[in-house]
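User: If only I could read backbone structure tokens as easily as an amino acid sequence. Underneath my words sits a plain record pairing an amino acid chain with its backbone structure tokens. This is the protein in question:
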Amino acid sequence: MTSIVGIITIAVMLMLTAGLIVLQVYLSKMESKWPGLILPILSLVMALVAASGMYLFSAVRYDGTEIVTGHEEIIIETEIDEIEVEGIDEEEYEPEEIQEVNTSEAMGIGFGGVLLLFVLFSIPAAVYFIIYFCCRNAGKQKRALEEMALQDL
């Protein structure tokens, strides 16, 4: 059952990808240059959003005393009114030392990880830009040939 779902998912993704490529070719061949830039710019914006989201919200951790989100640490002070655990008095209790941790570094997500994510998410934008420039150059060559044919007459 899962293999059928996987095959259907792959087929839908391939059809979606082919449809977007056909749409890009169609938009790139239009007279105006701006419609052909819609998909590449949208893809580039999505890459920027994904990379900035990873940089800003790389991890959230709460261990009872500290919340760490991305690259900033927020320390929460907690007061303990009574500790009723066998063998421990309130006066003897010393909270553990809070360690400042940069979670993005602790998770191995630094500038390199964000850059890698941006590069991977920019692949569709690069493909769309290549399609755009190829179609625009082919259109320019076709118009140049038509102008030469008119001048020969």
